[in-house]
Amino acid sequence: QVQLVESGGGLVQAGGSLRLSCAASGRTLFIYAMAWFRQAPGKEREFVAAITWSGWSDYADLVKGRFTISRDNAKTTVYLQMNSLKPEDTAVYYCAARRQGVQKYDFWGQGTQVTVSS
User: Fold this and answer.
1) Distance CA 50, CA 20 (A)
2) Residue-wise pLDDT tens for the chain (118 aa)?
3) Cα–Cα distance, 94 to 20 (Å, whole number)
4) Half-sphere exposure of 38 (CA within 13 A, CB side)
5) Could you please report the per-residue DSSP string of 8-51?
6) Between the CA of residue 81 and those of 19, 35, 73, 84, 91, what are the distances in Å?
7) What is the pLDDT of residues 12-46, one digit of tens each?
8) What stretch of H or E contains 53?
9) What pairs with residue 19 in β-bridges?
10) How far apart are CA 2 and CA 79, in angstroms?
11) Spatial distance between the Cα atoms of 84 and 18, rounded to a whole number of angstroms
């Protein structure tokens, strides 16, 4: 099993920045990729960004150029640097992990709230 714990959420004004962290523990050797998703009130959960342990990354169009996903060298922590935040970025942000050979993200954190005021 893999445990994921997010941190770094909070309240920020539009145009500001936040950095989210996701610490993985447990059987981390089995992790192939980690990602961030978000869910706003009344909306479905949506993909934000992902990174593989080889360093390949991907972003949703809505956050390209504003958000950056990265990982530490130990490959147990993933970060999401969020710049130029907009009120529409307000959501609960979830960290997720995917194992090698598994197509879906099957380990999830508890989420961290990000609120952007206008």
Assistant:
1) 13
2) 899 999 999 999 999 999 999 999 998 888 899 999 999 999 999 999 999 988 899 999 999 999 999 998 777 899 999 999 999 999 999 999 999 889 899 999 999 999 999 9
3) 10
4) 23
5) --EEEETT--EEEEEEEEESGGGEEEEEEEEE-TTS--EEEEEE
6) 4, 13, 17, 10, 15
7) 999 999 999 999 999 888 889 999 999 999 999 99
8) none
9) 81
10) 17
11) 9
Site of tokens 């090698």: 100
**Amino acid of residue 111:** G
Classified as helix, coil or strand, 5 is: strand
Query: How many Cβ atoms are within 10 Å of 29's Cβ, its own excluded?
Result: 11
> φ and ψ at 90, to 5 degrees?
-60, 125
Let me know: does 23 contact 31? Beta carbons within 8 Å: no
Amino acid type, 77: T
Q: How many residues does the chain have?
A: 118
Nearest Cα to Cα of residue 22 among 74, 73, 96, 103: 96
